[in-house]
Amino acid sequence: MIVDTFKYPLTNDEYPKTLLIGSLFVVGSVLILPLFVLIGFFARAISNAIDGEPAPQFSAYGELFVDGLKLTAISVIYLLGLVVLAGLTSLVGSVNEMAGFVGMLVIVLYYFGGIYLSTAIVYQFCRRRRVRDAFDLRAIGETAYSLQYFLVVLLWLFVLPTLLAVGQLLLALTLIGILLIPATLIYELVVYAKLIGDLPAPANTPVDGETDAVGTTGR
User: What is the C-alpha separation between 34 and 36, in angstroms, rounded?
Assistant: First the structure.
């Protein structure tokens, strides 16, 4: 799995061009708007990996931007849930100390549970790039309930970022290396996308283009 994951960014026939364009977006992300394109590119890379397609190229920038906004909105909504819980805990805690303590436990569970389930949430969104799929708690739970999922979370949230950051720090020791760092970030993004995209699909969940239980199409 790991070998194929690191090869995946190179399955795009025009990967040098993709890395170059991506590098420009990385540098331009300080202007905020290009960051949404990068997030959308990440979503597209996951979708391609799910569908067994080669790594994507930068194209249809409007679509990338919209998908980036969607994924950002999903994150904000889940974050607002944490803010609401914190507010309620503070309010209840001022009335009853024990209730406030229970509320704190709920916040801790929500926070760490959110970190663990974030990969499944992103995966569910990227299957059909529909916002509502990111809140399908049953499908999210099914995706997260496996040893493979645990390993993917461990790799893409903790192990690989640490190892790749060390490599990027070594690159930064030279001027040429500094110039290459944005390209390595794009490569890293596609590697993570492949890890997530290779997760098994939940049972009874239609893929893009199929008809779901209520007779609607994939998009």
Answer: 5
List C-alpha distances in Å: 209 to 33, 41, 42. Answer: 30, 21, 21
Contact 47, 127 (CB under 8 A): yes
Q: What is the pLDDT of residues 47-75, one digit of tens each?
A: 999 999 999 999 999 999 999 999 999 99
3-state secondary structure of 210: coil
Q: Which residues touch 104 (CB under 8 Å, ≥6 apart)?
A: 89, 93
Helix segments in 29-136, DSSP class H: 33-50, 61-93, 97-128
Q: pTM to 2 decimals?
A: 0.90
Ramachandran region of residue 146, left (φ > 0), alpha (ψ -120 to 50) or beta? beta
Q: Tens digit of pLDDT for each residue in 155-191?
A: 999 999 999 999 999 999 999 999 999 999 999 999 9
The number of beta carbons lying within 10 Å of the beta carbon of residue 86 is 16
148-152: Cβ within 8 A, 24+ apart: 148/199, 148/200, 149/119, 149/120, 149/199, 152/119, 152/195, 152/196, 152/198, 152/199
